[in-house]
From TrEMBL:
Residues 1-89 form the Muconolactone isomerase domain. Homodecamer. Pathway: Aromatic compound metabolism; beta-ketoadipate pathway; 5-oxo-4,5-dihydro-2-furylacetate from catechol: step 3/3. GO terms for biological process: beta-ketoadipate pathway. It comes from the Bacteria. The lineage of its organism: Bacteria, Pseudomonadati, Pseudomonadota, Betaproteobacteria, Burkholderiales. This is Muconolactone Delta-isomerase. It comes from Chitinasiproducens palmae.
Length: 94
């Protein structure tokens, strides 16, 4: 199943800069592993915001939740999820 996921990142000032940098490096490593595995199909920065729109291709709600909640920045993100279905006018299956 495909899911459009909106992630807004807010790391509070109480998190030390070194800790924040480590979390971001771990987040990048996990995101790139999931992209290589084909589960994180798109990752787009929202221009001008510390936020992204992503498309995940996973078995269902439970796998998506497991992946999102394992992200290093998960405690500092506001996440919204939109399940995607095929559009009948799309010229190619997604
Ligand atoms: O910077 C972000 O939008 C949060 C994030 C998701 C994957 C990644 O590497 O950073």
């Amino acid at each position: 199943m495909l899911y459009l996921v909106h992630m807004i990142v807010r790391i509070p000032d109480t998190v030390a800069a070194e800790r924040a940098d480590a979390l971001k490096a771990d987040e990048k490593a996990m995101a790139q592993r999931l992209q290589r595995e084909g589960k994180w199909r798109h990752l787009w920065r929202v221009a001008g915001e510390y936020a992204n729109y992503s498309v995940f291709d996973v078995a269902g709600n439970d796998e998506l939740h497991q992946l999102l909640s394992a992200l290093p920045l998960f405690p500092f993100m506001q996440i919204s999820v939109t399940p995607l279905a095929q559009h009948p006018s799309a010229i190619a299956p997604n």
